[in-house]
Amino acid sequence: MNPVLAAEAPGFLSPTGVEIAFLLVGLVTLAAAAVTVTTKQLVHAALWLVVALGGLAVEYLLLTAEFIAWVQVLIYVGSVVVLLLFGLMLTKAPIGRSPDADSGNRVAALAVALAAAAALVWVVVDAFRTTWIDLDGPAQGATRVSGEILFRHWVLPFEALSVLLLAALVGAIVLSRRDRTESGPAQEGKR
Amino acid sequence: MHLAYPAVLAALLFCVGLYGVLARRNAILVLMSVELMLNAVNLNLVAFDVWLRDTLHTGQALTLFTIAIAAAEIGIGLAIVLMVYRNGGTSDIDKLRDTTEVPGADDPTEPAGPDTAAGEKAEATA
């Protein structure tokens, strides 16, 4: 499957330039993700999420998946984070430090996360210690390649996905519409 | 590039997201952590796709589908969170105990107590 595997896998002690860049961006991404889940300022969590998702876009670029990288920037950084910020503002999230941002079971959560991390990293490193990705040659995720495979081999899932997006849009509108006939006076009374 | 680098990064990102889902109290922060976990899956898909040199590019196609489904998920999730906030006055998932099964179920004042307190607290912070 992997032609380089049979010959000789390069060691970890002499990393290539791409590997060093991947490692540095990966550290930044991981640190931003950790700040996202631990900070007590809710808006800062959304802004650190931008750093984490942008770092992942750079990782996609380093893995020669250009189209995925730009889709990541457009959809995640451009729209998902904006939606999350809107959600924070619409639920009147406190600006500044909120001491009850973390639940009471954070010790148990930390234990579960550390156990999962140890198990996953152990298994992954043990399995793919000698596997080498050959990044030479033409970019494998160029826009032309992605468009051809998407509209030649994956047309049916693509169209099904568009139906799912439409259903999600309609569902979100239905959920967020006020039901005037039943709860109108109750809403007025609560305000 | 070693496949171990993206695989380990994806595993660690997934675990960071797992911690966030379990430890956060605000529903929108839980949604952010879910996004982190989905992104870890995407990184794995892209890395294995590039490694295997798949002619159908299954990993990248699945990554695009995952991103679209994540966008749908965040839309629906935010709509649900906003509706819950409008009805209950809080987006704190520890306080959403409407469907909980308390041991002494014939005491109706116990579940109602924290809810009204939460509503007042949300009003006070707003």
Automatic annotation (TrEMBL), chain A:
It is a multi-pass membrane protein. Coiled coil: none annotated. The chain crosses the membrane at residues 20-38, 45-63, 69-95, 107-125, 154-175. GO terms for cellular component: plasma membrane. Pfam families: Oxidored_q3. PANTHER family: NADH-UBIQUINONE OXIDOREDUCTASE CHAIN 6 (PTHR33269). This is NADH-quinone oxidoreductase subunit J. It comes from Streptomyces purpureus.
From TrEMBL, chain B:
It is a multi-pass membrane protein. Keywords: Cell membrane, Membrane, NAD, Quinone, Translocase, Transmembrane, Transmembrane helix, Transport. Its EC number is 7.1.1.-. It comes from Streptomyces purpureus. NDH-1 shuttles electrons from NADH, via FMN and iron-sulfur (Fe-S) centers, to quinones in the respiratory chain. The immediate electron acceptor for the enzyme in this species is believed to be a menaquinone. Couples the redox reaction to proton translocation (for every two electrons transferred, four hydrogen ions are translocated across the cytoplasmic membrane), and thus conserves the redox energy in a proton gradient. Its main location: membrane. GO terms for cellular component: NADH dehydrogenase complex; plasma membrane. This is NADH-quinone oxidoreductase subunit K. The gene is nuoK1. Residues 90-126 are annotated as: Disordered. NDH-1 is composed of 14 different subunits. Subunits NuoA, H, J, K, L, M, N constitute the membrane sector of the complex. Belongs to the complex I subunit 4L family.
